[in-house]
Specification:
With 619 residues, this protein is of the alpha/beta class. It folds into four domains: 139 residues, no CATH class; 104 residues, Fumarate Reductase Iron-sulfur Protein, Chain B, domain 2 (Orthogonal Bundle), CATH 1.10.1060.10; 126 residues, FAD/NAD(P)-binding domain; 147 residues, FAD/NAD(P)-binding domain (3-Layer(bba) Sandwich). Helices cover 30% and strands 20% of the residues. It is built from 21 helices and 25 strands. The strands form six sheets. Strands 3, 4, 5, 6, 7, 8 and 9 form a seven-stranded mixed beta sheet that branches. Helix 6 crosses helix 10, helix 7 packs across helix 10 and helix 15 packs across helix 16.
Amino acid sequence: MFRKIRRSEKELTTAEITAVLDKGEYGVLSTVGSDGYPYGVPVHYAYDNNCIYFHCAVVGHKLDNISNSNNVSFCVVVDERIIPSSFTTRYKSVIIFGKAIELFEDEKRSGLLALVKKISGKYMEAGSKYIDANWKGARQFKIEIEQMTGKGRTIIPCKNACPAGVNVPGYIALIKAGREKDAYNLIRKENPFPAVCGRVCVHLCESKCVRGEVDQAIAIRHLKRYAADRSLAEAAYDDASVRSNGKTVGIIGAGPSGLTCGYYLARLGYGVDIYEAQSVAGGILAYGIPDFRLPKEVLKREIRLIERAGVKIHLNAKIGKDITLNNLKQKHDAVYVAVGSQFSKRLGIPGEELAGVYNGLDFLRDVNLKKNTVIGKDVVVIGGGNVAFDVARVALRLGAGKVHLACLESREAMLANPEEIKEAEEEGIVIHPSQTFKRIIGKNGKVTGIECLDVESCHFDEEKRPHIKVCEGSEHLLPADTVFFAIGQRPESIDAFELTAGRDNTIQIDRENCLTNQECVFAGGDVARGSDSAIAAIADGKTAAAAIDKYLGGSGVLNKGADIPIPEPEKIDQIVLQSRFPMGCLEPEARKDVFDEIHMGFDEANAMSESKRCLECDR
């Protein structure tokens, strides 16, 4: 390990190196083979405090085969012989550890060069497509940028990417061992919604999966669902009763953040009451996601488990109407505000007041709550995220003849999950990317279409305001008798809480402990961070539970249950290329008119086979 990195007489600071690392998430640690040709080890990286942690992915690639990847953001060069522009210009940035700019003293440079060769081993020279079975002993290491006290920690890419910190390789190993119950309970240590997240999570873990550098990322979300479905079907969950500590917490909002916070507080012995304005618990999970992606019974089962832990949910209890924040402060020792972001944004263009123009999230809520909904035959949805695609696909199932989806983003920049984009197109939904919108037109007070222009380029400034360059002469009309806005959400008015407001109607909090400007009042989830994913809200709920416990005199350490032993890794001689196993899905013609769940889930054979693709990066 290296205590300092120097450039001549000036220290290379953390800020200088992290400025390069911030440009991307992958890199290449490079050296020269015995044949004089440059070879490289692709790496994931993360930095924490004063250290860069490199996590090597695959060995045995010639450098020019790696450098053409769009995911590669930097190159760490440890030998000046591979500085020529024919290689370095293929990277967005280059950090050179070599005497060309004298970052290391000679012996330290030699030490790093030896480390790279140790990681790469003989397969670096051979250019083998297989992974050296001995690489596990050398693939994780750190470079200290400035003086650091204490020991470094290993970065596990998939677990590090999960906002809730779920032990991904651990539960995959348990599935591989046939221990689905233990896998489910291991997930529930960090996330009380395995079955839900196994269907609708944005699965950031998969984007960091090291196996993706070999062939394809592990189907982590599908495996989570497999463990959850098997365990829930057999009632194989573990929640031991906890003695009351005599204190109570009131939670406003029974969405993923509020329910998660309540679950972990109940497991610490707190009495927990959750106050929900709607007639059902679950928040956006209950009324913002259609049944064909998340069946309501799946959500209800996991909410019932949270109730079994001791959480009481009070429905149809709207703060400001049925009860006030001051009432809750007097009744409870602490209050957590987690009301989500439920107010649809609009563009502010002419014609938004016309009959037939609706908010997408309101539409999904009405459908999920079984309220009467009327749509026309020509539907246009404005937006490019998951909500927009859910609105479009629900409209199709409710009888719309034609459904078009138009958004500002380019096809590559659309925020929706790629699989949902693909499935929508298979069902006949027409996508119009790179569009901006001039006005909604109508006749006799009823919408008849929306005027659009093609976008040549678009970027957002630091205030998140769009700067759009349109294609001259590209004006065109999308006919419509129904228009939905699904361009994002923000919290509704927070005036009833008398809390300090932040940007876009959010609540200002101390990010370290979720505290608001009022004593004993905490906030988290979308109402504090802005519209985000369910897993981010779950993570906030955990953070808030620990902070509330500490505030009320506890240790701040959550009760996650007994340790679950993880099987020892098997010895692997070589890893052969094997793509991920697909999950079955209903055919477009069979699914586009119904609300039945369209993804069938893994069977045991596919789950076992998929779990065996894991490279066990935590070992």
